Amino acid sequence: MKKEIIYQTAHFTIGLVATLLLSMIMPIYAAAPLVLLAAWCREVYQRLMKGHHWFDCKSGCRLDMLFWTLGILTASIIRVI
Questions:
Q1: What is the SS3 assignment for 1?
Q2: Distance between CA atoms of 39 and 36, rounded to whole angstroms?
Q3: Phi then psi for 56, rounded to 5 degrees?
Q4: Residue among 41, 35, 45 at smallest CA distance from 12
Q5: Contact call for residues 36 and 76 (beta carbons, < 8 A)
Q6: Is this prediction's pTM over 0.85?
């Protein structure tokens, strides 16, 4: 459980920081989808390395994407305010 908390905190933080940094050089409406695409590519890569199909996103993958998205949304709100 402790390991999962660390992983999800990392997903949130990386989504937040990456979006904030990219939004300094491009509009937020371009930075946010770019970070989300990078997160999705990372999750697909992880699934492929484990021998699963690229489209096989189970609960762990969905949880990871949820925290990536929360970080991206938080950064987007910060940049808009």
A1: coil
A2: 5
A3: -90, 75
A4: 35
A5: no
A6: yes
